Structures are given as C-alpha cells and as structure tokens.
C-alpha cells in the first residue's frame, strides 16, 4: 500500500470515529453478507448503502436492530440486522 493510500485510509477512519462518536481502535468483529433476496437500498445520513450479496465487516453490534459495518470501499454506516446473514 502506498503512503498516500495509507494516509487516506487513516483520514477516513478519523472521520468515522468523529461522525459515529466511536472511541478506541477499529476492530473487525466478524464478516457478514447482505441477504441476496434483499432489495438494494440507498444510504442515508448514517446508513450504509446496501447491495444484495455484498460482504461487510462488522465493527460493532449496536443494538438488536442495527449493526455498525464497513463496506469494501471503507465506507461506514448502520445496517439493519434483519438483512444480514452470517458467513
């Protein structure tokens, strides 16, 4: 990874921590897949856009309804737990 790409990732991680008031290091708990039968959803202010069959990194299980996730483009947001399937 180049120095420029590394700095960009660090900046995105800092922005995530500020936006979601997340303290500590960002650790991936597990990976889960968006249900292939789910409809594609656009992201909102703090919601992650979803594509059926997409694999997401789980950062935190926030409550019984939502999970804080990161996609392959290093975007962060909440995802409804109802559309997630374990790998």
From TrEMBL:
One of its GO terms (biological process) is integrin-mediated signaling pathway. The keyword Phosphoprotein applies. The keyword Ribosomal protein does not apply. Pfam families: hSH3. Residues 16-85 form the Helically-extended SH3 domain. The lineage of its organism: Eukaryota, Metazoa, Chordata, Craniata, Vertebrata. InterPro entries: FYB1/2-like, hSH3, SH3-like_dom_sf. Keywords: Phosphoprotein. This is PRAM protein.
């Amino acid at each position: 990874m180049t120095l420029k790409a590394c700095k960009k990732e660090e900046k995105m991680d800092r922005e995530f921590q500020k936006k979601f008031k997340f303290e500590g290091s960002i650790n991936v708990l597990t990976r889960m897949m968006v249900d292939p039968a789910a409809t594609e959803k656009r992201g909102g202010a703090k919601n992650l856009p979803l594509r059926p069959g997409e694999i997401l990194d789980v950062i935190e299980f926030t409550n019984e309804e939502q999970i804080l996730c990161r996609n392959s483009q290093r975007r962060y947001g909440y995802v409804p737990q109802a559309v997630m399937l374990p790998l």
